[in-house]
Amino acid sequence: MECDILVIGCGPAGLSAAGYAARAGYNVLAIDSLAPGGQLLYIDEIENYPGYESTSGYSLAENFEKQAVSFGVRIEFWGAEKIEKNGDRFKVMTTGEEVVCKAVIFSSGASHRHLGCPGEEEYQGRGVSYCATCDGPFFRGRKIAVVGGGDTALTDALYLSKIGSEVHIIHRRNEFRGQKVLQNRVRAKDNIFLHLSLNVERINGDDKGVKSVTLTDGSELDVDAVFIFVGIIPNSSVLEGFADLDHGFVVTDSHMRTSVPGLFAAGDVRTTPFRQVVTAAGDGAAAAHAADEYIQNL
Ligand code: NAP
């Protein structure tokens, strides 16, 4: 099929880009192999998206999608498999149809990094999780470990402290990377315990699931669940050898232009110092504007 602009990835960056481009009069197709919303779907509560005192990630995702569709965006559950450029047209092979378009906005986001310790794969789904909102409620009144020291670990530890009896944050340094305001809240909670300058050596369990974690100092901590929040890996493999990447993140300028004219990148997948819902949405708007300029000059 043909369209003016293909948006790959329907998180906040992609849905914002698609909405802006459709509103500017372009025929826009937005694709995602999963439900629209991206990482928003895993966030329990968001209190720093402008205009909302507090909202759930799911409801914000729904609003993003509804608004994009109301501007005329067509959304398909397809994954991108290969991108080529022939003259001034892109050809994108997807798990659905082949798409020919004038510009591509790449906003495929990022996935959870794994710890890589023994027991992590084995107990995934039986106590090991990467999503507090999805799996936290299974551990009501139980002891929970959270691994990591960034915004996700701190935000989700606070969420899990409302569900579990105890939350043990295990972080490899003695300083957190996450925002100060979150650090202060974590330190003020009397059922959150900090294990700093330590990492998880091994996750232990039996056929019922996780029982404990062994830490790098040899100590063992009894927990029923381990939530791992040790960062993100960009979903950019489809661009390898096609556009410039830096440690897997798509290199862009401040207009979201990549090394390939007509290919723009937005949100967590691009090189950016600050990854928030609001910056992803802003990236999307900027990418749509740059794509508009590019197409007008074809
Ligand atoms: P992140 O900021 O990259 O933090 C990852 C954490 O995991 C760091 O503390 C890191 O330790 C630790 N880590 C990395 N590899 C590890 C390993 N192999 N073993 C043990 N620990 C390891 O990732 P994130 O927290 O998922 O956040 C991703 C992005 O989303 C960030 O830009 C963040 O600001 C943003 N975000 C924002 C919000 C919000 O504003 N509410 C919420 C969630 C996420 P070191 O500190 O030692 O490197």
What does the model show?
- This protein is an alpha/beta fold and 298 residues long.
- It folds into 2 domains: 2-111 and 232-296, FAD/NAD(P)-binding domain (3-Layer(bba) Sandwich), CATH 3.50.50; 114-228, FAD/NAD(P)-binding domain (3-Layer(bba) Sandwich), CATH 3.50.50.60.
- The protein is 23% helix and 29% strand.
- It contains 6 helices and 19 strands.
- It has helices spanning 12-23, 57-70, 132-135, 151-161, 180-188, 277-296, and strands spanning 2-8, 28-31, 74-76, 80-86, 89-94, 99-106, 110-112, 128-129, 143-147, 166-171, 192-196, 200-206, 209-215, 220-222, 225-228, 232-234, 245-246, 249-250, 263-265.
- The strands form 5 sheets. Strands 1, 2, 3, 4, 5, 6 and 19 form a 7-stranded mixed beta sheet that branches. A 5-stranded parallel beta sheet has the order 8-15-9-10-11, covered by helices on one side.
- Helix 4 packs parallel to helix 5.
- It is elongated.
- The two termini are 20 Å apart.
- 43% of the residues are buried.
- The mean pLDDT is 97.
- The structure holds NADP nicotinamide-adenine-dinucleotide phosphate (NAP).
- NADP nicotinamide-adenine-dinucleotide phosphate is lined by residues 48, 115, 148-153, 155, 172-173, 177, 199, 229-232, 275-276.
